[in-house]
Specification:
Three copies of one chain form a homotrimer.
Chain A (H helix, E strand, L loop, with lengths): L5 H27 L11 H30 L2 H24 L5 H31 L3 H7 L1
Helix pairs in contact in A: 1-2, 1-3, 2-3, 2-4, 3-4
The complex binds glutathione (GSH) (3 copies).
One glutathione sits at the interface of chains B and A.
Chain lengths: 146, 146, 146
Amino acid sequence: MLDQVVNLAAVTILGVLEQAYFSLKVIYARRKYSVSPPSTTGPPEFERVFRAQVNCSEYFPLFIVILWVTGVFFSQAAASFCGLLYLWARFMYFRGYSESAHGRLAPLYLSGKVLWVLIGLSALGVLNSMGQVYLRLDALQYLSGI
Amino acid sequence: MLDQVVNLAAVTILGVLEQAYFSLKVIYARRKYSVSPPSTTGPPEFERVFRAQVNCSEYFPLFIVILWVTGVFFSQAAASFCGLLYLWARFMYFRGYSESAHGRLAPLYLSGKVLWVLIGLSALGVLNSMGQVYLRLDALQYLSGI
Amino acid sequence: MLDQVVNLAAVTILGVLEQAYFSLKVIYARRKYSVSPPSTTGPPEFERVFRAQVNCSEYFPLFIVILWVTGVFFSQAAASFCGLLYLWARFMYFRGYSESAHGRLAPLYLSGKVLWVLIGLSALGVLNSMGQVYLRLDALQYLSGI
Ligand SMILES: N[C@@H](CCC(=O)N[C@@H](CS)C(=O)NCC(=O)O)C(=O)O
Ligand SMILES: N[C@@H](CCC(=O)N[C@@H](CS)C(=O)NCC(=O)O)C(=O)O
Ligand SMILES: N[C@@H](CCC(=O)N[C@@H](CS)C(=O)NCC(=O)O)C(=O)O
């Protein structure tokens, strides 16, 4: 049974590693620009790194949750592929935002699109399961039989 | 087996959609009040929208986690019902907070109460399961037999 | 089957309770130091409590996710033990940070170490499962047979 989620678990670990990396980057930036906690304001260079990490942290739970719902109710392969793409987009977002506020935009749009695809696929999978449970229909099976 | 969690998955997707909606609202507010990242300060109208989204994001992982533990260990129906109520309370919180700091209070109390109910039910369910596993007791079964 | 995750669920509930406790502490600090939402700045005493809760909230999803992946793919006992240690470290972090910025450091390092142990164990477990699924190997079984 674990084989049906093992790739999701691998993507999840990569996601945690990415967030850990972003946190370390903030810690280095705090040292470099002498912004001691609890302060969170400083030169724009610091604030961009700081906000990049905050923004990625904010979206991380949404990402993980929708990754797993898609992987379990729609397809593990599709979810894992989108998951890797999302993590890559977030990496580029962090790098871009660290350099300039404008640099965050292109990867942000990409990460947003991947998230919408995952939301769409998870909704398809869950609606199909609800159809099976409550109406004894199986639309995905039906479609794949055409 | 998926039928035992399909409603939790549906509530989860709704939760992700709600958070996505809050994020879009912050993006619109950033444009409307010209608050460019990485800045997070501006007129109170902006700051209330901004904080409303941050606050909901902070509680989102707590909500999802306790929703699923309740749904799996206590009852899917009870968890899903509380879940919908919570999402509705958070929607009202966001709307209320966007209008005035005071407007956030009533829905915040409601969302807090729902969260406590979920914590209580999940604890009941988990304690019962622990009783079954470690003491071979089944209190919930016993109670429903009275 | 639930017996294989019931301890993870118990640690999860404790984690949610801890975060709820931190939130209440921020609410009290807001009253004590008269920092009304949406403001988040005030005397350093307030800002330390505020940031302590934000920092713990940021790491909470990472913690929960890695706790469950470790518990499911490596060992429930090891994951639960590390989980309790992490929650304790975070409690000390919150207390330490509330008193002084320096007071947060020792428990932060501990919580970081526990998180790295969990990341390592979860990676071992997931790689082993991948080996079983894709290469039909079982390294953990092999090692325990030596
Ligand atoms: N958001 C964190 C990310 C990195 C982190 O976890 N930093 C540690 C060591 S400097 C910390 O205790 N930060 C204090 C804080 O978040 O207020 C930050 O702003 O510092
Ligand atoms: N918390 C976010 C919510 C909305 C969002 O994700 N915004 C995008 C596009 S403006 C972003 O990159 N925000 C930068 C940031 O969070 O610092 C914000 O404050 O902007
Ligand atoms: N991060 C929250 C933690 C506690 C909380 O949830 N507070 C409630 C009642 S004061 C709230 O609505 N906070 C407004 C906010 O987070 O902006 C805070 O800063 O207040």
